[in-house]
């Protein structure tokens, strides 16, 4: 059996772009996309899974590329009515997006797992590739601040990342295990590579690594692990990564990204704007590819996916 299956680990917006690129160049049987659920939360009686939805919308061609999140051609009538009724409006839900949350929430209340619901919804949207949650058990990201621990969405959306971060932890069910599809992907005989999409290492990838047994499985792997750096030109295109690194006492650099992943990382792909970082990174024994990592359209996504797969010696059609 040839080792050709690819396991992708992804957060939201940036990760979703590369996940879509990988899905465009790999057949469904050769790709499993495992998505961070540390951002998930309950809001207005609905189960919200922002990163799963970002990946789903990207693969379904429904994502709003201008806004960077949510569904394209969105309307906001339900949210306007909720606000008029005095309900919380700090987390904005579009009408089409709310349909996703309603479908997920009532199915889960009927007893379906997050994995089963995700498989159902992605299938209904015509997605053939496997998009799976990191775990069916809750494992929620919290950010430490001077005012105490904030749930991720409260920190990220309501507070707009303004509080100074003093730490990060993952709260929830003790011993949260990988979802069944995630566990199967890790154990596949034909696993050929693991690709870490350009997501925030602390807020999007670390929750996946915090799932019981995942870090140990990656440490014991016999295939390359390739990460695409989320930094471009010494900063993050979106999100709080640069601010977070500084507040946690780390330089805003590709070296900090590489050091954070440590021995898990075999190969780092960095943007051409950061080409000067390559020598230092290679001096640590790390393999490095310098290329354009900004993904503005489908062509960019597919090209970067092929670069990542080439680094792993995975052939594409």
UniProtKB/TrEMBL annotation:
A UniProt-annotated Pfam family: CofD
SUPFAM superfamilies: CofD-like (SSF142338)
One function term, GO molecular function aspect: LPPG:FO 2-phospho-L-lactate transferase activity
Name listed for the protein in its UniProt record: 2-phospho-L-lactate transferase
Gene it is expressed from: cofD
EC number(s) reported in the record: 2.7.8.28
Keywords: Magnesium, Transferase
The organism's taxonomic lineage, starting at the top: Bacteria, Pseudomonadati, Pseudomonadota, Alphaproteobacteria, Sphingomonadales
């Amino acid at each position: 059996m040839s080792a050709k299956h690819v396991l992708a680990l992804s957060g939201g917006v940036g990760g979703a772009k590369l996940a879509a690129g990988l899905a465009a160049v790999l057949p469904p049987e050769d790709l499993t996309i495992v998505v961070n659920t540390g951002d998930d939360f309950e809001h207005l009686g609905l189960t919200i899974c922002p990163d799963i939805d970002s990946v789903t919308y990207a693969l379904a061609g429904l994502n709003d590329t201008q806004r960077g999140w949510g569904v394209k051609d969105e309307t906001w009538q339900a949210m306007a009515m909720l606000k008029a009724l005095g309900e919380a409006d700090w987390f904005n839900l579009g009408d089409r997006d709310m349909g996703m949350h309603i479908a997920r929430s009532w199915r889960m209340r009927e007893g379906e797992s997050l994995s089963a619901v995700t498989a159902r919804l992605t299938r209904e949207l015509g997605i053939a590739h496997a998009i799976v949650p990191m775990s069916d058990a809750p494992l929620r990201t919290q950010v430490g601040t001077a005012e105490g621990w904030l749930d991720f969405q409260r920190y990220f959306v309501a507070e707009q990342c303004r509080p100074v971060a003093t730490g990060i932890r993952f709260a929830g069910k003790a011993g949260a295990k990988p979802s069944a599809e995630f566990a199967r992907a890790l154990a596949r005989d034909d696993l050929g590579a693991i690709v870490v999409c350009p997501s925030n290492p602390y807020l999007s990838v670390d929750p996946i690594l915090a799932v019981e047994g995942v870090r140990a499985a990656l440490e014991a792997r016999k295939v390359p692990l390739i990460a695409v750096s989320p930094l471009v030109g010494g900063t993050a295109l979106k999100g709080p990564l640069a601010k977070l690194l500084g507040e946690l006492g780390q330089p805003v650099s590709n070296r900090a990204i590489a050091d954070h992943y440590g021995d898990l990382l075999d190969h780092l792909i960095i943007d051409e704007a950061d080409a000067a970082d390559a020598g230092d990174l290679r001096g640590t024994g790390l393999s490095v590819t310098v290329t354009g990592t900004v993904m503005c359209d489908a062509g960019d996504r597919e090209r970067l996916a092929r670069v990542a797969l080439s680094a792993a010696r995975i052939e594409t059609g």
